[in-house]
């Protein structure tokens, strides 16, 4: 019988840094168990993540040439290389065109297993080659459980509307807490419909949710970056839905940053405030606010009375964050607040003792970093999985507060921002605040438990081996 003491695993994540990076984090954990990894990566993108590779002797990057698709900026490889989300379908189309190269690589490299996510055609390529396929999902089981099976993609007449997504499936855990708001459902409608023609053609015109459904159905096994201690009921829900192995990689806590040096500018700024007093706000790598929401958010921080550091892209229609600031804002907040338009060392900022509150869009990376920090959490979810992460943190785990928004258009006001921030920062003054703080401490301790991560990585590694038997 074949020796399965260690495996050769190929990784083929969706061409977005929010996916490539967590695929590399799980590769690091698997390499610690001795598994060899061939990591398929768009050629120029490799330099952006090289520094996360903790086991270069076991993790080899395999460059993938990304074909040009009309309408994409020259050289664009991932979603972070395009100026707006309307161009994401073109990235999808470019990924589809790598299929012949991926097939040759799989044939030549002969891995035991391939991990993939949105490239729904991987099982079809891999099966004849005797390679097992794992749909590795960096978005939560909760999100997948809520979204799966809502639309019959084989029925061309299937009607898709906001109502399709408004309520949880019948037997869904915590169903009333999970129901989406009307403004949130629209995004799911968009993600259910094929992108418009002129989006690269071919299978690039399969909707994102359709892709997800095919991947879930056709793969040999499902695997999630998740743990039962946090998402138990939702994991059990998926186990009931899919009669195939469901593996858990655990929280997959990224290794600490190599550099321990926070830029001096931020050391000086944060160092001038007392412990736990500063609000840090960042909305991930993809979200650009409208100008009025950009201003409401900042006015909310101003009203809160706390010092703040807001890391935001210039809003739509503005070249810089400075030109978009509310009238008289700089004079009023003075040294108390900074609005920064560039990239920042988020993990180091969150570790700074002066930072007491993290206002997050609930991207999966930021949620984990927030839970691992000592900060209180305020959630302003932006899309897809963010909504569910926000409900999970706010309503199920009761470990943070979500900013209230208008049902119809999702608009949040300065007052709703102020209210959420004050609720967590003055936790000692209210029963709800005290409960949230206690829960946040509980989940931080849980995630930092040494045996939690090692249990999941060991178990994940073992169960992957059984897929070969
Ligand atoms: C497809 C989508 O990718 C999304 O990525 P996004 O960048 O929005 O958010 P994070 O996962 O928090 O990832 C953002 C990452 O960037 C880091 N960072 C951010 C801003 C900054 O100034 N400096 C930093 O170091 C941050 O620390 C985090 O690790 C999400 O996954 C989402 O769940 C998924 O659906």
TrEMBL record:
Pfam families linked? UDPGT (PF00201)
Q: Which domain of life is it from?
A: Eukaryota
Q: A GO molecular function for this record?
A: UDP-glucosyltransferase activity
Query: What does the UniProt keyword field contain?
Result: Glycosyltransferase, Transferase
InterPro entries assigned: UDP-glycosyltransf_plant (IPR050481), UDP_glucos_trans (IPR002213)
Q: Where is the signal peptide?
A: none
Q: Keyword Glycosyltransferase, does the record have it?
A: yes
Query: Keyword Glycosyltransferase: yes or no?
Result: yes
Q: Which family does it belong to?
A: Belongs to the UDP-glycosyltransferase family.
What is this protein called in UniProt?
A: Glycosyltransferase
């Amino acid at each position: 019988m074949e020796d399965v003491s260690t495996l050769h695993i190929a990784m083929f994540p969706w061409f977005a840094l929010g996916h490539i990076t967590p695929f590399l984090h799980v590769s690091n954990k698997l390499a610690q168990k001795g598994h060899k990894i061939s990591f398929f990566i768009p050629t120029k993108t490799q330099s952006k993540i090289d520094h996360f590779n903790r086991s270069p002797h076991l993790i080899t990057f395999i460059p993938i040439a990304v074909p040009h698709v009309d309408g994409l900026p020259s050289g664009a490889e991932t979603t972070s290389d395009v100026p707006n989300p309307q161009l994401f379908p073109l990235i999808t189309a470019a990924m589809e065109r790598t299929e012949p190269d991926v097939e040759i690589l799989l044939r030549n490299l002969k891995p035991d297993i391939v991990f993939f996510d949105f490239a729904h055609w991987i099982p079809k390529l891999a099966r004849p080659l005797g390679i097992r396929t794992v749909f590795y999902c960096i978005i939560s089981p909760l999100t997948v459980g809520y979204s799966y099976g809502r639309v019959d993609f084989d029925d061309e007449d299937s009607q898709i509307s906001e109502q399709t997504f408004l309520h949880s499936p019948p037997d869904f855990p915590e169903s009333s807490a999970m129901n989406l708001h009307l403004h949130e459902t629209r995004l799911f409608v968009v993600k259910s419909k094929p992108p418009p023609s002129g989006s690269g053609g071919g299978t690039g015109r399969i909707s994102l949710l359709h892709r997800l459904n095919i991947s879930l159905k056709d793969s040999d096994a499902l695997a999630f970056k998740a743990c039962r201690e946090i998402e138990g009921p939702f994991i059990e829900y998926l186990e009931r839905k899919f009669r195939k192995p469901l593996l858990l990689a655990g929280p997959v806590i990224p290794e600490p940053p190599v550099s321990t040096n926070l830029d001096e500018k931020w050391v000086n700024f944060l160092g001038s405030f007392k412990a736990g007093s500063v609000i840090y706000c960042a909305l991930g790598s993809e979200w650009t606010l409208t100008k009025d929401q950009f201003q409401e958010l900042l006015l909310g921080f101003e009203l809160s009375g706390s010092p703040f550091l807001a890391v935001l892209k210039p809003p739509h229609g503005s070249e810089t964050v400075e030109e978009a600031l509310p009238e008289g804002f700089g004079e009023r907040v003075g040294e108390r607040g900074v609005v920064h338009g560039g990239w920042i060392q988020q993990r180091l900022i969150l570790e700074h003792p002066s930072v007491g509150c993290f206002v997050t869009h609930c991207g999966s990376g930021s949620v984990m970093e927030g839970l691992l920090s000592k900060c209180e959490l305020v959630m302003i979810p932006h899309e897809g999985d963010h909504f569910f992460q926000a409900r999970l943190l706010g309503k199920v785990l009761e470990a943070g507060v979500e900013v209230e928004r208008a049902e119809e258009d999702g608009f949040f006001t300065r007052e709703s921002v102020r209210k959420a921030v004050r609720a967590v920062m003055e936790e000692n003054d209210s029963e709800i605040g005290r409960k949230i703080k206690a829960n946040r401490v509980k989940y931080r301790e849980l995630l930092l438990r040494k045996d939690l991560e090692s249990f999941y990585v060991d178990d994940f590694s073992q169960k992957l081996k059984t897929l070969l038997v």
